[in-house]
Amino acid sequence: MPELPEVETTRRGITPWCVGQKVTRVDVRERRLRWPVPAEIVESLPRQTIRSVDRRAKYLLIRADRGTVIAHLGMSGSLRVTRPKVPPRKHDHLDIVLANGMCLRFHDPRRFGCVLWTTDDPCVHPLLRDLGPEPWDADSEYIYRRSRGRNQSVKGFLMDSHTLVGVGNIYANEALFLASIDPRRAAGSISRARYQRLATAIVRVLDEALGMGGTTLRDFVSASGEPGYFRQVLRVYDRDGEPCRRCSTKIRRILTGQRSTYFCPRCQH
DNA sequence: AGTGCGGCCTGTCCGC
DNA sequence: TGCGGACAGGCCGCAC
């Protein structure tokens, strides 16, 4: 599933194929994504040149001459470089066809993702406007200050994109383990020193995963799926009943909200 | 304003 | 073997 590192990997993977390329056509086979694919993208994007591919949180920003594609991969999405004549698979919802004979193909079985179009600065788009800082830019003092007075669980607080972006369920669990913090604790009850550890832990798990995303970069065009490198290095996520890698106590799974939360009852407090 | 939760979707897995 | 149901997940948008 596309977490932040995979979105960044996608960005790096598609950039050399499409920056500087003119768009010749946009083919929409299924417009019912999270929000309908706007007709303007089909009308306006062709004949424009792609100038850059940026990322904000888990949104990819494909900037053209007079407008920007805002794409989100949701839970199950991918954006791959292929040739337009390659027959679309099931759930290949949209192609951005390029003058160099390639295309960007958006694939998303669950359709939690989106492909939108804006002619404004994408940063003022309602979806991006209120987002917190990127994890690499979020210093612990900011996170600590923001947590004061919050009764919400620290895990929920971390996963709130207004606090900071890019910390999904997997990384929230992993970072809280590294920082030895019980995910059920109220965000406002945790000390400044522990937020320092937490901020470091977040960057560490994201960098680790980004390093592994690099391995899928090589055969990017060949459309090979995620081989599951993540799983072997996970410390708590999806390890209910298995021994803690630090103290061998059984990892516990609980539900907070509707989300699975994994933690070591001995290491995290 | 902060917080919790429903809903959107389909593939996968489990039990009958 | 086939079928139904539970579950997973990001994150918007609503209700309290």
Write a concise synopsis of the structure shown.
The protein is α+β, with helices and mostly antiparallel strands. 30% of the residues lie in helices and 21% in strands. It has helices at 4-18, 39-44, 126-129, 140-147, 154-159, 169-178, 192-217, 229-233; strands at residues 23-28, 50-56, 59-64, 67-72, 78-82, 92-98, 103-107, 114-118, 252-256, 259-263.
Highlighted features:
269 residues, alpha+beta, DNA-binding, elongated, four-stranded antiparallel β-sheet
Task: Summarize the helices and strands and which ones pair or pack.
Blueprint: H1 4-18, E1 23-28, H2 39-44, E2 50-56, E3 59-64, E4 67-72, E5 78-82, E6 92-98, E7 103-107, E8 114-118, H3 126-129, H4 140-147, H5 154-159, H6 169-178, H7 192-217, H8 229-233, E9 252-256, E10 259-263
Antiparallel strand pairs: 1-6, 2-3, 3-4, 4-8, 5-7, 6-7, 9-10
Helix pairs in contact: 1-7, 4-7, 6-7
The chain binds a DNA duplex (16 and 16 nucleotides) through residues 1-2, 34, 58, 72-76, 91, 108-113, 127, 149-152, 156, 159-161, 168-170, 257-260.
> Quick one: how many beta strands?
10
Outline the biggest β-sheet: 4 strands, antiparallel
Query: How far is the first residue's CA from the last residue's CA?
Result: 29 Å
User: How much strand?
Assistant: 15-25%
Q: Which sequence of strands runs across the widest sheet?
A: 1-6-7-5
Q: Name the overall outline.
A: elongated
Which secondary-structure class do the elements indicate?
alpha+beta
Q: Average pLDDT across residues? A: 89
How helix-rich are the residues, as a percent range?
A: 25-40%
Query: What's the Cα radius of gyration?
Result: 20 Å
Unreliable spans: 214-226
How many distinct helices? 8
Query: SSE order, as H and E?
Result: HEHEEEEEEEHHHHHHEE
